Give the backbone structure.
Amino acid sequence: MSWLFQFAGGQDLLSLLMSLLWFIFMLLFLIYPTFSQKIQLSYMLRDVEKKLLKLKYFRDEVRKRTINHLNKYSDGNIEVDKGVDRLLGSVVIEPIDRDPYGIMYKLEHIVNTWEETFENEVRALCPKADEKTVKTLTNLVEVARGLDYIYRIIRHYYLLGKKTANIYTVLQVQMILPQVMEIANAYRQSSYAFAQGQPIGDGVGVLAVAKLIDGMEKKTYEIAKDTVVQETFWNGRKILVLRAKGPGGAVGKPGEGVKKLIEAEGDKVKAVITIDAGLKLEGEESGKIIEGIGAAIGGIGVERYKIEEISKAKGIPLYAFVIYESIAEAITPMRENIAKAAEKVVEKVKRLILEKIDDGATVIVAGIGNTVGIGMT
Amino acid sequence: MIPGKEAEKIPTPLTHMKCLKCGTVNSRPFKEGDYVFKEVEEKCPKCGHDKMRIIGIYVKEEKEKKKVKLF
């Protein structure tokens, strides 16, 4: 026993036990080199698990809100919850891109079919809803579907990382989770906005063009699905305002609309101006207006492709106005500085028209974005 | 797990209306069915006219405490 006490520096029993414990601990790290990694993994998994639970809470809350809201427009014989669950799990398969020839039109065809099917499914679930409400309810289900997808993806990587004890899988999920949580919370807030029919930040482009021709005498007609044109004259110039039909939640087909308008107007069109919300970088001010060249339009690219294709063929210049906002601001109820930017951009568009468009010529002004809560002028 | 108080907070926008007679702008909390450019039958607080037009629906910005920003 004396040699053991010598090991502890000839001290008492407590010091001996402490030294032994310390020795075993050191040995553990030597024999089992990934021990520290295991501890780190368990900490990371716990962090991801906490956020995943929060995501689940958001997902369930949005799903419940969607079902409750759809139930208002349904009748007793329809099982809304089962219908919503079916829509949440539905998928869109992108066209094969190994042969990229004509891919934009293939993509357009798939997206159009998807949108139509989705809308018809919602319409069937809510027979009491009018057309405007069906559009907003479709957006609401899309938000619930988006949040459900985010939750399932994060859960997949969490479980995969846990099962394989792969620290690198878990590390990647943990790294992107703060941004994912921000987006998920924005989705949650946007479900509330869509349920109530409140304008969202993305609608600022539509709001701007509506303000541009507010109070002017105009002719309104539908040019593509959910897309309207408002023809007016201002300072000797013909202005063709293109936007999605509101106040239901729709984005319309601005690309298709611009294409048809240019085909109908011929060489009279001297410019296409697009106004849209754009993602700002961290540190930039929300509601800041940026002027540029090109087609300011997001989405999968089909609509932008169409505008670029026709304008290139006809040699029409493209001018763009982008209103900066964050991803969260784009899908949540509109903020004051973004709404105020819509008024400022109107002045900039008017100045551009006077500078670039000659008397008697035609200009297309397209307001891009979701029209939820924004009516027609 | 129940998320924190901050996540619970859902911003309620204000509906801003303009009187069609005297042009007075008034606001109230958003009500379901409101949309921008809708004409509503509500009394103007100034002239008493019963028709107003919604000119904006947005969330009022909270005044941030002045911080010295480096960037």
Observations:
- The beta strands of chain A are 219-224, 227-234, 237-244, 269-279, 289-293, 318-325, 362-367.
- The mean pLDDT of chain A is 93.
- The CA atoms of residues 235 and 354 of chain A lie 8 Å apart.
